[in-house]
Amino acid sequence: MPEPSLPIGRHYPWLAPLAGFSDLPFRLLCREYGAAVCVTEMVSAKGLVYASSETTDLLATTPEDRPLVIQIFGAEASFLSRAVALLRDQGFVWFDLNMGCSVRKVLRQGAGAAMLDNTGNALEAARVMLDAAGPGMVGFKLRLCPDEARAPFSRLKTLALRLQDMGAGWLTLHPRTAKQGFGGKADWDALTELAQCLTIPLLASGDLTDARTGVRCLDATGADGLMYARGALRNPAVFAEHLKLCRGEAAAPLDTDVLRAMILRHIALTRQLAPDKPRFWKMRAVIPRYVRDLPGARALRDRLCRCADLRAVEEALDIFWYTIKNSASSPVPQEAEKFSGRDA
Ligand SMILES: Cc1cc2nc3c(=O)[nH]c(=O)nc-3n(C[C@H](O)[C@H](O)[C@H](O)COP(=O)(O)O)c2cc1C
Question: Atom 23 in ligand 1: which residue has the minimum CA distance?
Fold first, then answer.
């Protein structure tokens, strides 16, 4: 049976690929808030072919984790082709080629944004992936270019049109140069320009810090859809807020009880689906982002660094919430007082 097409549009916000973060528990959390499609962290084509355990771990999924796009990085067509074939054998159907990563380790391999400097190789990589996956089943995530701002936009446009002609299902543009990394301002004008010349869907990425900004980006650029990245890392409920705004409803900020429930849900999903040490360590980095605007956030982060397991994380959070609820009115227990003191 042919695969249904991926939901792309204003009412279908995606979770962007986030190396180190868009793992199975986080994807499921974002889906519970309304993420229509999730993209995995980037997975190495060579790692897939050589079946490295690190790479295999990144493919952990469940039936609820659908539709799922596997993002691959690599520069060599032979590996990309074999990687897609192997993934298809495992039941995965949608793929994305990372042509935007600005991390030096990736650029040195000629992968990520370095592919934008070698159009011939980029097109060959696209061709083999589309051959292996089928037309429409692969997307390409682009940056403006490796190191110049707008000058070579025509080159990016040419590449985008070639990818479209070859059967790309969608394109994503993060309109920064690789040299910019995540700094500076995303160039939404470039999104507008690219959206105008494509007939396949264009997904916007870049500076989508919250739902209001996301909807504004869609309105301003004419992009067909978008991906939340750092906006989702700060607030996975951004998807619910986005959908509310699209329905014309007001999106209220999270109150502390809802925020608390969200964090506990993330911990529960991590405990259930990824209880191993590295995933747990990641939670110590993730939680402070969720509470960063609340008093005591810094102290919580320091305390989390000393936690050795998820139980200890939950205890640290209990003290944090207790402190928040009671700081204005009633005395806090000794432990909580110590804990909140440094941030007071
Ligand atoms: C921690 C982190 C990890 C990322 N990992 C990937 C990745 O694996 N593949 C990719 O194409 N982009 C990756 N990105 C880029 C995001 O998908 C997105 O394009 C970028 O953050 C711009 O969106 P934003 O400004 O709304 O965060 C990553 C970004 C961050 C912050």
Answer: 206
